[in-house]
């Protein structure tokens, strides 16, 4: 049986663990963006920074940030959950991607993993979610994230009609002393 939002939300322990990794399965009440070609986008959740997760046909997951950035982050809902579990700091990987450079994303992932505040709690959440949902281990979540964002051609617009930009940001870990030191 494929992993769906309904399967995940039926398991309260998994929902609580995913919330600790930054994903809430409570969608926004009011839509604050539109998606070209999609009349009624299905928002499946949000994150602590005000971003929205949207499930698009056939099962792609789109992320819309409150900062005016948007893009596909996973080819399937299951790949989305695997990404969140494997790399709960996935949005920061994109922030420090050097404009969409895979090598910069790898460097960022390594540095971010080294700076996890509560590594034991995160690792426990990873294990419990994986076991509860029967998740396989993703091959390379950084490559999957890179490929999903790079191939994203969905146009998301603010309520005033202005288009959102890519999720790739221009920073690298070299712009952040804490991450630069963690990678050294």
Kindly describe this structure.
It is a single chain. With 184 residues, the chain is of the alpha+beta class. The protein has helices at residues 5-9, 12-20, 77-86, 90-95, 102-114, 119-133, 141-151, 177-183, and strands spanning 23-24, 33-35, 42-47, 52-56, 60-64, 70-74, 156-158. The strands form two sheets. It has a five-stranded antiparallel beta sheet. Strands 2-7 form a two-stranded antiparallel sheet. A hairpin with a 5-residue loop joins β5 (60-64) and β6 (70-74). α5 (102-114) crosses α8. It is globular. The N and C termini lie far apart (43 Å).
Give a brief description.
The chain is an alpha+beta fold. It has helices at residues 5-9, 12-20, 77-86, 90-95, 102-114, 119-133, 141-151, 177-183; strands spanning 23-24, 33-35, 42-47, 52-56, 60-64, 70-74, 156-158. It starts with a helix and ends with a helix.
